[in-house]
Amino acid sequence: MRVELRDIHKSFGPVRANDGISLTAEAGTVHGLLGENGAGKSTLMKILSGFTVPDRGEILLDGAPVRIASPAEALRLGIGMLHQDPLDFPTLSVLDNFMMGRPGSRRRHGLAGLLPDRRRAREALRALAAQFAFSLDPDAPCGGLSVGERQQVEILRLLWLGVRVLILDEPTTAISEPQRVKLFAALRTMAGQGKVVFFVSHKLQEVLALCDAVTVLRAGRVAGALEAPCTPGQLVALMFGRDLPHSPRTGIAHGPPILELDALAVDDARAPIADVSLRVRTGEVIGLAGLEGSGQRLFLQACAGLIPAAAGRVSIAGRDVTGRPYREFLAAGVAYVPAGRLGEALIPGLTVAEHLALAERPGVFVDWRAASRAAAQRIREFSVRGTPRTPVQDLSGGNQQRVLLALLPQRITVLLMEHPTRGLDVESAQAIWAHVLERRRRGTAVLFSSSDLDELLEHSDRILVFFSGRVSAPLDARHTSVEQLGRLIAGEEPVGREMRP
Amino acid sequence: MSVAGTSPLRTIATGVLGLVVTAACGAGILSALGASPWEAYRLIAAGAFGSPERISYVLTAWTPLLLCAAGLLLTFAAGVWNIGIEGQVIFGAVFATGLLRALDPGVPAWAGVVLAGLGAMLGGALWGGLAGALRAYGNVNEIFGGLGLNFIAGSLTVYLVLGPWARPGIASTSGTLPFPDRLWLPTFAAPPLVVPGEAILGLVAIGLVAGALRGTQFGLRLKAIGKSSRAAYIRGIPVTRGLLWAFAGCGGLAGLAGYVLVIGAYSRHQLFPLISGGYGFLAILVVLLAGSNALAGILISAFFAAVSTGSLQLPLQMHLDSSISGILEGTLVLLALFMRGMQARLAPGEGDR
User: Fold this and answer.
1) Which of chain B's residues have a Cβ under 8 Å away from the Cβ of A349?
2) Over the stretch B250-262, which tens digit does the pLDDT of each residue have?
3) Chain B residues within an 8 Å CB radius of A338
4) Closest approach of A345 to chain B, Cα-based (Å)
5) Which chain A residues have a beta carbon less than 8 Å from that of B215?
6) B237 touches chain A (CB under 8 A)
7) Are residues A223 and A217 in contact, defined by beta-carbon separation less than 8 angstroms?
8) How far apart are CA A352 and CA B80, in angstroms?
9) Cα separation of A190 and A169, whole Å?
10) CATH class for domain A257-489?
11) What is the pLDDT at residue B3?
């Protein structure tokens, strides 16, 4: 089956997740979909698999336009999706999961149609598993299997349902190397049978190894489409754009070390971090580069005291705060600005003045007049488009981010920011960085994560690159190019384990 | 959970519209039963407001609702469902009864009454705090924890009434020996009305809670926790402590309702099994409708009290069961929630926050 997507648009509020995407995948090919997080890959595949309805655009299967309103309809059309995290029923057996979602046989009537034909299913499972050299015990509960085996069950289930277009969303994130090899062989086999396989990834090596054609997305648009064979350099250029001239660096003197990490390790099921040692000095900026989910968030939250370190030590201004409660980190002057502006950083439903009153905490009673006055003043200072009585969810992203900075306490020793300018217009982004600069002059050390390589190179003194929980030695931002950084992020060059303090 | 975000005006408008549709639904049910809706509604109104005495009964039914609603405003603000409120009412009643049995006649009657009130608040607060602690530390959803605690509290009253606190010579579930009238809460004459003293207590309580939610750091923090406990935590607000205080505060006010049910001016002046009598659950419906608006809570609980009291006339005059009040109240709440759901559906983006 040939799959064509034409001019697909999808917006979530002000965010244009898909902004006129067109691509064609021929029958019998593995089609790679490459791009940064937020590039629009997942949205596009959710549209194709019926989870999301596009605002505009057309989907054609073998040249015939179709409307896909639900995942069930997608399955009827022969489109199935393997999700990043297994969407199975862990307490049920492999066989039960395999049979899930299969409509009752049409040839049988009466009660017989209601009863699943387990014997036939068992045979089908064995035959399909043999075809792809998967070894699965039909009676084992799915919950006891590895993620890779659960993927195998799900793939076989979709094939038994008659899927001719298989979408895989980051399938290799949590599986072992032998399982990956088996998976890729199976995908090649399926392509050989004339099926279309969409392979969503941000790992260059895998895309290069597996795909017949690649479409690279950036910021909701098609950055380019390539046929195999292509080079990593071509893909990196399409994924991250070109080198831009950087504005001159502002010389800020770095003071004594303020945040010291000593062989820090953080536990996580997906991308645990091991053995990071780092000394950040006052006024210094450390950029955290890497694809999302590579460990930057974990790292920032460990520095903020929100999650405990599994091993190693964290010291702030010379005081060991390892394992201390979050409020002691706050008292030590740590401020964390998470990426989720609503629901993590700001409290939806409360106004700007209410946030300020919470942040100031003067006593038992709230002096609303003073809080409103103070809020109005901060709103002027930070040029927020809004009033003290505006609920924060009614502000635009840029204004929310300004409010976040306006709410920070006067004195901060370490400022931790996740994607501080994501989704913001240029003017807002500049305002944010101007404020951060002001903070640095007063001696605040800054650590921030970003997926904008130019931003990382422009504002950081040193950069740590995260790849699957591995952390590079700090790179000097002045002597690093966008290309170099892009290659490290995509895992094209190995990211070292060893760290220099 | 987006109820708390609606404006007061909208809440009231929804309420009025709900009332009209509810009356129409009730009329339909009554007609189906072969009764005249107008006659029934007239009887309910007359039963509630027909004489000064009846108004006193409405005020008596109103008070526990007010106290429970006041408490639930706290947990509602914090974004949790204190289903355990019935058990907290019972624990207040049990603590009050126990204290009065122990103190009277050893201490002056007024001191016993005051101490019993404080004890009732303590009892309710402990039982509420337990539900909160189960949630905060044991990861037990407050709805299931509350249900379990309600059963325990209910069984406790049966045990006490039949066992240690049984009336001398009789083993009956009807209740403990009634307290003498020196231990009853006072009434105030406001001719031609006689106002039970506890009604004033209820109004003061809900007023204080409304003030605390509006004008104190505690109230603001509860609101922050209710809107997003994750963001509140990251902003440095002690979430666990806030939740525990919300549960304890709600339990304390519910305990006070239990105290009023034991020695209120027109109460039975005794502890009897399941003394909470559904007031806590009814108050949950009140707060569901009122959202975070205390004034709406006062009006809606007054309305519920009037309908419940007034419909007691139906069996006497029309051979209908008084449970029609339950049907009317339930219909009203369901309709209001339905209308809110439809509003959210018609204005997407506002409903699913």
Assistant:
1) 4-5, 223, 227-228, 353
2) 999 999 999 999 9
3) 234
4) 5
5) 365-366, 368
6) yes
7) yes
8) 24
9) 17
10) alpha beta
11) 40
- Round to whole Å and give the CA distance between A257 and A318: 8
Q: DSSP readout, B223-288?
A: HHHHH-HHHHHHTT--HHHHHHHHHHHHHHHHHHHHHHHHH-TTS-SS--TTTTTTHHHHHHHHHH
pTM, two decimal places: 0.77
CB B256 within 8 A of CB B96: no
Asked if residue A3 lies in contact with residue A165, where contact means CB atoms within 8 angstroms, the answer is yes
Q: Which fold has domain A3-240?
A: Rossmann fold (3.40.50)
First CA to last CA across chain A, in angstroms? 55
Q: Which residues contact A147 (CB under 8 A, 6 or more apart)?
A: A86, A174, A175
Task: For residue B325, give the nearest of B67, B34, B14, B58 by alpha carbon.
Answer: B58
Cβ atoms B46, B313 nearer than 8 A: yes
**Which of A15, A307, A346, A347 is best to mutate for the B interface (most B CBs within 10 A)?**
A347
The residue in chain B having the minimum alpha-carbon distance to the alpha carbon of residue A340 is B231
Query: Which candidate from A338, A350, A366 shows the least CB-CB separation from B234?
Result: A338
Q: Where are the domains of chain A?
A: 3-240, 257-489
Considering only residues A47 and B331, tell me which one the structure prediction assigns the higher pLDDT: A47
What are the phi and psi torsion angles at B35 (to 5°)? -105, 155
Q: Where on the phi/psi map is residue B313: left (φ > 0), alpha (ψ -120 to 50), or beta?
A: alpha
> What span, in angstroms and rounded, lies between the C-alpha atoms of B155 and B153?
5
| Both tokens assigned to A229 | 């064979």
The 10s digit of each residue's pLDDT in A10-46 is 987 767 789 999 999 999 999 999 887 668 888 899 9
Question: Backbone phi, then psi, for B205, in 5-degree steps?
Answer: -60, -50
211-230 of B, contacting A, C-beta below 8 A: 215-221, 223-224, 227-228, 230
CATH for B253: 1.10.3470
In which domain, by residue range, is B165 found? Answer: 54-316
Q: Which residues pair with A342 in a beta bridge?
A: A346
User: Using the beta-carbon criterion (under 8 Å), do A347 and B235 form an inter-chain contact?
Assistant: yes
Domain count of chain B?
A: 1
Within 13 Å, how many C-alpha atoms sit on residue A89's CB side?
12
Distance (Å, whole) CA B279 – CA B87: 11
Q: Distance between CA atoms of A309 and B217, rounded to whole angstroms?
A: 32
- Chain A residues closer than 8 Å to B223 by CB: 349-350, 354
ipTM: 0.84
